Amino acid sequence: MKNNIIFAVLLTLLSSVFACEFQLDGENYVEIEQEVNSSLSEYELTAIADDEFIVRPKQITYSFKVTDGLFYLVVATLDEKEIYVSDLPSGSFILRPGMAVADYGFAELVVNVYTSTNTNSLADQVQAEAAIYQFKKRIRIDKRPAEAIPFTITSTTNALTFNFQQYPNNNLWRVNIYGGPDPDQLFNNENQLSSVFEVPSQYIDLGYVGGTMYYGVETQVFRGDIMESERSNITTINLSDGPKIVKYESTADGHLKVYWSRAPFESSFSTYTLKWLFNGVKTLTSTNFNDTTASISGLPMGDTISFELVTTSANQVNKVINSSLGALGDRAFQFDELYVDRNTPSRKLSYDASSQLLRNTENEQISISLPISGLSFSNNGSTIAAYSRDIISLLNSSTLTLIRQIELNGLANNSFPRPVARLQVIDDRYVAYTDRVFKLLDYVEDAIVYQGNFNNNVIYYEESKNLVLIGRDFSGNSRAYKAEHFVVENGTLTELPNEFKFMNYTNSIGFGNYVAIVTTTENKINVIKIPEMESVAEYTLGTRYFLKSADAATNWGLFFIESSVQVRDMLTGTIIYSGPNKIEQNYALVDGILYSGNGFSLNLNR
After folding, report:
1. 3-class state of residue 467 by DSSP
2. pTM for this structure?
3. For residue 41, what is the domain's CATH number?
């Protein structure tokens, strides 16, 4: 149509939705008579502000309605370069900055609408003339290359704060902020912290929870019709190592408390997650910024446990992971068996069954190698009597040197000798033991000076000089037992009249001025006071158990009950401590401290 127009008549120019006045234009412009009936009665055109920056493609929509005439054509130009032509009265086109001539500056957008003139002239009748309605707008173009945005990071009291310089150009599309632990992967999508359409005056990072972090800013611009980006230099931040495990503390109730340092900023913090491996992965999670400790129960004493502390940032993007090894208990000494002086608990000897090495726990250089089934300290502390089968070895308690050995088979007056089952040093001359038959040995003269009945245990109480024998009561019932006692002085035994009788004996342990007697009758424990031979405590545990030892300093007993190791008050049965039992290792209870054979101890008197 346009190529057939011979001349054009410019009718009244309209003010468009561009909100500007249109200028009369065109070299063929003439005024026409009022009888021209054609008019552009309705129109819509996408609004563009005065001197608006067009830095990325923009869709322009239009709609024109002609009254009493014909719509011929719409033509859009940018800097006099035709960018759109259509004979449809409504539609849209894309205004692309790349269509402009200059990279930066002003450009003129013109939209011409051609309609019939309705002059009824020959030219009008053959559609060879047109009325032109013209819409003009001056726009601004910026197609300059992307530039990096300089920024600084400062540490405030509660966050990392980014401060940006103003971007010098106007074709900015996006500003992307990145942060991550790996500078080579920094600008990956998973490390994007923020994406905004303008340069922020300030940005508060909610991703820093410690350690070395790398930060960068990417500028995205439109260079005409294409997107282009530029990245800043990478900034490194290391304000702290991040939260890490700093201490383990074992409590008297058998809990392991794990302590860690706090995250650097509360606003950047989301969660602490403590993980450990014991019978599967266990997890504790805290969302409290100031909560930097966890109390863990159910751990076996002395087992090395691998802990992992994961601190997650508030934006869930970054994590700081710290690994550490911890164990319930304090470092002590290893043993297969631990022997303790009942009167002086600080005197302890550890025994390694594989090497047959007996050591002083305070000084491991003091040691001796010999087979041992058990031993007893003398009350004056100068002599130790160790036994194995039918040999008693007398040792110097200070140096553990062998004084001499006594072969029980060769002793005078020793009837029917068997391996020693229990032994107690009475003084610097006499040893009481049982090889199923109670015997009193004069180890100076190497002679048995007293031989009694069948007995299961022998316990000596130095303060009262009472010797308690626990054995069968030959009253006709095969399950009947009794505890009888004597006074021992200068190798002479004087039997005392009061005794304690019971049924179904399994075990007995002496401690302080008491003896605990264990029976299978309702899994009962009787605690008998010496020398009165009166029961001062009686209770049942409701399940099968084994009483390993009792501590004279605290009156606590060491029990193995099913899969747990327990410490109980012997006078009440109250549980002091309970934890998993490692079958392959031994335990000992001394002066309120629980020792495990793997080299750890737990102070239950804390």
Report:
1. strand
2. 0.70
3. 2.60.40.10
